[in-house]
Write a structure and sequence with these properties.
By secondary structure, this protein is α+β, with helices and mostly antiparallel strands. The chain folds into two domains: 87 residues, Thrombin, subunit H (Beta Barrel), CATH 2.40.10.220; 30 residues, no CATH class. It contains three helices and six strands, in the order αββββββαα. Strands 1-2-3-6-5-4 form a six-stranded antiparallel β-barrel.
Amino acid sequence: MNLGNRRSERRVGFELGIHVYIMGIDGTWRRECRMVDASQNGARLIVDGSIEGLDLKEFFLLLSSTGLAFRRCRMVRVAGDQIRVEFLPPDRAASRKKHPCRHSTDENTSTLKDIRWTTTRTV
């Protein structure tokens, strides 16, 4: 998709902004932000604090403080305290690796059900 098509894609604006975080892929830095608009392929963020010296070639946009909802991103533009980010596709190699909870035995399946129930109960 070329840049011209991306600008014409449908964006959703958030009047007050949604409180989010950006975090380095290696977890060594984290900044608070407000997401002021988003589309299927990217978002516009207002960053609290300086972004100088941060590696913004690839980072995470955390939509929750616990990091359970996130997107991999890269910065495409800076304008003052605002940055435009592009969502990166999921890492196909990582998605093919087996998750430790994904097994076909009945014992592990019941454990997985217990984990889901516990997570639901604690949230």
